[in-house]
Amino acid sequence: MSDLLERLRGRGWRVTSQRRVVAEVLDGDHVHLTADEVHARAVRRLPEISRATVYNTLGEMVSLGEVLEVSTDGRAKRYDPNAHRPHQHLVCSGCGTIRDVHTTGDPLSQLPAEERFGFTVSAAEITYRGLCPSCA
Ligand SMILES: [Zn+2]
Ligand SMILES: [Zn+2]
Q1: Tally of domains in the chain
Q2: Per-residue model confidence (pLDDT) at position 125
């Protein structure tokens, strides 16, 4: 069973064959797929799965907190199954490749108290941009 599917099950999510396929195609490391890409992969396994089902299922996974919505280029939202492992993103300005990366320190601790404006800060998203080896 995929890691994501296991986590969703642990939250009492009712697994149907359609939901299972969506969870399975979204599983893995460095996975950041648009809803259309998830649909295209899901159709290969379950030809009758509709785009609406894929969109709704992704929305439920996001509400459960098991999938992150990532928008690194201001274009289509991407879905990231690694919500349980805090990470940042390294994005290629050439081809759009996205890698999951981990900072050496806690990104939250890098925001000084006087820059917090009284906020209780609970999360930080950092996007590093550059060119990947193939585009450099
Ligand atoms: Zn590239
Ligand atoms: Zn990611």
Answers
A1: 2
A2: 87
| Ordered alpha helix ranges (H), the chain | 3-10, 17-25, 35-45, 51-63
**73 and 92 belong to one structural domain:** no
Q: Which domain holds residue 12?
A: 3-80
Q: How far is the CA of 136 from the centre of ligand 2 (A)?
A: 22
Report how far ligand 1's centroid is from the alpha carbon of 108 (Å): 28
- Distance in Å, CA 6 to ligand 2 centroid: 19
Q: How many angstroms is it from 29 CA to the middle of ligand 1?
A: 18
In a domain, 75, yes or no: yes
Q: Is 9 exposed, middle or buried (0-12, 13-18, 19+ CB in 10 A)?
A: middle
Tell me the mean pLDDT per 10 residues along the chain, length 136. Answer: 88 94 92 95 97 97 94 83 91 92 90 95 91 96
Distance 76 CA to ligand 2 centre (A): 15
103 located within any domain: yes
Q: What CA–CA distance (Å, rounded) separates 20 from 125? A: 29
Question: Does one domain contain both 29 and 10?
Answer: yes
